[in-house]
Design brief:
A hairpin with an 8-residue loop joins strand 2 and strand 3. By secondary structure, this protein is α+β, with helices and mostly antiparallel strands. Strands 3-2-5 form a 3-stranded antiparallel β-sheet, with helices on one face. The protein is built from 4 helices and 7 strands. The longest helix has 27 residues. It starts with a helix and ends in a 9-residue tail after the last helix. The radius of gyration is 29 Å and the shape is rod-shaped.
């Protein structure tokens, strides 16, 4: 009788251990993926302690593979995107000019690590490009007279007025 109880207890304990290990292994694994047209910056996010950091670059579509480490991915769109900025500027002859300026910008493939580590990851345009771009356009437009700006859009060269 005692042998039957210990056998049953061993079976239950073994089943419990296998169940706990199964649940932990399924919830502890990660499989970061990157969609088409993106590059992924794969990094480890430590659970409790450790350094973590950069693991690899992933070109989409693809995945990093199942890992016991806590790997995550930051996906950066490397396709050309159009960024539109709306302007309302006072020209040199005191006329308000309202216009939209468009820029088509793409991140160079293979530079996702540099973009994430040095330029703010997914918010690279808002953090490092937008204000520089707006300043460049504002400076180019504000020194001209209205008629010169109008002629420039039609391709007719404009002579500077003193």
């Amino acid at each position: 009788m005692l042998q039957k109880k210990s056998s049953l207890l061993g079976s239950v304990t073994g089943l419990l251990v296998v169940g706990i290990l199964s649940v932990l292994s399924l919830t502890a694994c990660t499989n970061p993926n990157t969609p088409a047209g993106h590059e992924g910056y794969v990094y480890e996010k430590p659970r409790v302690f450790g350094a973590g950091g950069y693991r690899a670059t992933l070109t989409g579509p693809g995945n990093y593979g199942v890992s016991l480490w806590r790997n995550q991915v930051i996906n950066i769109d490397i396709r050309p995107n159009t960024y539109t900025e709306h302007f309302k500027i006072l020209a040199n002859d005191d006329l308000n000019i309202t216009f939209d300026f468009h820029a088509v910008i793409a991140i160079k493939p293979g530079t996702v690590r540099d973009v994430v580590e040095n330029y703010g990851g997914e918010k690279w345009y808002a953090r490092y490009v937008r204000e520089t771009f707006r300043t460049f356009v504002r400076d180019a437009v504000s020194y001209d007279h209205f008629w010169c700006l109008k002629r420039k859009t039609g391709g007719v060269p404009c002579q500077k007025h003193s």
